[in-house]
Specification:
The complex is a heterodimer of chains A (105) and B (465).
Chain A lengths: L2 E4 L2 E4 L14 H11 L6 H17 L5 H8 L3 H7 L4 H8 L10
Antiparallel strand pairs in A: 1-2
Chain B lengths: L14 H9 L4 H7 L6 H11 L2 H9 L11 H5 L8 H14 L6 H13 L7 H4 L6 H15 L4 H13 L7 H15 L17 E4 L3 H4 L2 H14 L3 E2 L10 H5 L2 H18 L3 E4 L3 H14 L10 E4 H10 L15 E3 L3 H4 L5 H11 L3 E2 L24 H18 L3 E3 L3 H14 L4 E3 L1 H8 L10 H5 L1
Parallel strand pairs in B: 1-2, 1-3, 3-4, 5-6, 5-7, 7-8
Helix pairs in contact in B: 1-10, 6-9, 7-9, 10-15, 11-13, 13-22, 15-16, 17-19, 20-21
Classes of the chains: A mainly alpha (105), B mainly alpha (465).
């Protein structure tokens, strides 16, 4: 399994660059994905999305639909894309330490 | 006794089984267990005897090993013309061997067959056009995947995909409530710019029933909203069904024949229930193939046709532009060089090449053909489920180079991709090779360049309010 190093930490990643294990997630991982995704500044709103994704995943074992993410965060779809340009199913899930969603994504 | 392993011969039919498999990230345990999976040679042979009809038997027997199919295969070209990537070799050394041995093959061989069936063929059907006998290895590999599925030798994500269809009647965990809620939500979000925008659910006797890919409600709902905007602009009388809205079939990619039937019947049932005049399928290639080309046979429809006339999204767009239902502002036509990715599933399976060029004549000032194009175009590199299988990522990425080079040769930086799978593959090739290209569905581009009729415009007082 490939490894990436960032800010003194080493992360194992899968073939699509998602973290190998949800439990290995850390703030350094968030910073790493921020850089990878070309996100300029990390705000409380990014953190809110991450928290919602992690909470939902812990409870359900799968990433939520965007509708759920929007409802719980109160963010409109366009705003979610402003926060995560590669989309909620890609960049946001990656940053939150979730696995890459399966299916046609 | 219940089968408690993750990797087994039993299709997934419950949420519990589905989530247990999802929890095994990347299928680590699943693929380990696969090494111990017993092959039931008698059952495999019985399945072949029952399901392998004269066309496939003849194709296996008449192959002259002439090698004409070699250069037709993008994976052969991408892998430095490796003889093991010649289509005829790939099918003869897998399906051919299983038949020769009357199903008596071992675990190691079946794992090899799985590798070939899902990482060396995307079922793009291009080879069938170059074989002097018309042998289509894509069709044979689809069949071989079905045999693999019955024995449990199927990639982890494909087993999940088939299970999703069986449990949710969708390739992702989207329920009827989730779907209807998303339709309402998208209207709310877009109605500021498009007053009066509607996504009518379960409207009877509409002119059009619109069906989608589960990725739209699950991850990319803007796709659905944009379809609504374009139907709104065109003044269409349309609807979506509350059930039977999922047009795709990962069950088809998985080789889960029973799952294919269950899924497509849910769409046909919606048509019977709502009596639309026509069906329009979203910008997805395999959804069209699953529901329009293959589906009627899975469902046992004697006509070989879906219950109602069906258009791929590109056919609807061409019609809307041709009849003036949607008018393009000439000043907004795309000025930069642009190219178009012909999706195998509706180019080779349905001959929609002219339709695509007609659309381009309305939208683009400098349209550049890929070489080859139309029905001779190469697979995007990620078809047939290849994009979605992490286990074969290295092989998929290597396969992308043919499409990368084809795009670069056109000189265009924008690729129009009216197929979710092609869109994903071209996005991924940009991620992998960083060649500086962009990709887009038709919908967002059309919305940008369409003339908005006066009565549909946002009024100033509404804007100020």
């Amino acid at each position: 399994m490939p490894e990436v190093e960032f800010q003194g930490k080493t992360f194992k990643v899968d073939e699509d660059g998602f973290i190998d294990d949800y439990n290995n997630w850390s703030q350094e991982w968030v910073q790493f994905v921020k850089k990878e995704e070309g996100i300029e500044e990390l705000t409380d709103e990014h953190n809110k999305v991450i928290d919602v994704l992690r909470e939902y995943y812990e409870k359900n074992g799968i990433a939520p639909m965007v509708r759920v993410l929007s409802k719980v965060t109160g963010f409109k779809l366009k705003h979610i894309y402003e926060l995560f340009p590669s989309g909620p199913g890609k960049g946001a899930c990656k940053m939150a330490g979730l696995p890459k969603p399966t299916g046609c994504v | 006794m219940a089968d408690v392993t993750l990797c087994n011969k039993t299709p997934i039919n419950t949420k519990e089984e589905l989530y247990a498999l999802l929890n095994d990230k990347s299928g680590k345990q699943y693929y380990q267990q696969m090494k111990e999976l017993e092959v039931d040679g008698d059952a495999l042979w019985a399945t072949i005897r029952k399901s392998m009809k004269s066309r496939l038997k003849t194709w296996l027997e008449i192959c002259a090993h002439c090698g004409m199919c070699a250069d037709s295969c993008f994976l052969y070209l991408a892998n430095d013309k490796d003889p093991k990537q010649v289509p005829s070799y790939k099918i003869q050394s897998t399906l051919g061997e299983i038949v020769k041995k009357k199903g008596q093959v071992d675990n190691e061989f079946m794992r090899h067959v799985m590798d070939v069936a899902w990482s060396k063929c995307t079922c793009c059907n291009r080879c069938g056009m170059y074989c002097p006998f018309g042998i289509d290895m894509g069709i044979m590999f689809s069949y071989l995947r079905g045999l693999c599925f019955t024995q449990g030798f199927v990639p982890w994500e494909m087993k999940i995909g088939s299970g999703m269809h069986r449990v949710f009647r969708a390739q992702m965990d989207v329920t009827t409530e989730d779907w209807v809620d998303t339709c309402e939500w998208m209207c709310e979000e877009y109605e500021e710019d498009w007053p009066g925008l509607e996504i009518p659910v379960d409207k009877e006797d509409a002119d059009i029933i619109y069906t989608v890919n589960a990725r739209e409600p699950k991850h990319y709902p803007e796709d659905l909203a944009e379809a609504a905007v374009l139907f709104h602009l065109a003044g269409e009388n349309w609807t979506v069904p509350s059930e039977g809205w999922e047009e795709t079939s990962l069950a088809m990619f998985a080789g889960d024949w029973e799952g294919c039937k269950l899924q497509v019947e849910s769409v046909y049932d919606a048509i019977t229930r709502l009596r639309p005049k026509r069906m329009v399928v979203t910008e997805c290639g395999h959804a069209y193939r699953a529901t329009v080309i293959e589906g009627p046979y899975w469902a046992g429809r004697k006509s070989g046709q879906p219950p109602v006339e069906t258009l791929h999204y590109v056919e609807w767009v061409a019609e809307a532009l041709r009849t003036g239902k949607i008018k393009i502002d000439p000043a907004k036509k795309i000025k930069e060089p642009v190219t178009y990715q012909d999706s195998c599933n509706y180019i080779r399976n349905a001959g929609l090449g002219d339709i695509a060029r007609e659309i381009m004549s309305y939208m683009a000032e400098d349209f550049r053909e890929m070489k080859p194009s139309r029905e001779h175009n190469f697979c995007c590199g990620g078809g047939g489920g290849f994009n979605g299988i992490g286990y074969y990522r290295e092989q998929r990425n290597k396969g992308l180079i043919v499409k990368r080079d084809q795009i670069l040769e056109t000189g265009a930086k924008l690729v129009i991709t009216p197929c979710h799978n092609c869109w994903d593959a071209i996005r991924d090739l940009e991620e992998v090779f960083k060649v500086g290209i962009r990709w887009s569905f038709l919908k967002p581009l059309l919305i940008e360049m369409a003339i908005v009729p006066e009565h549909l415009k946002v009024r100033e007082e509404e804007e100020e309010a």
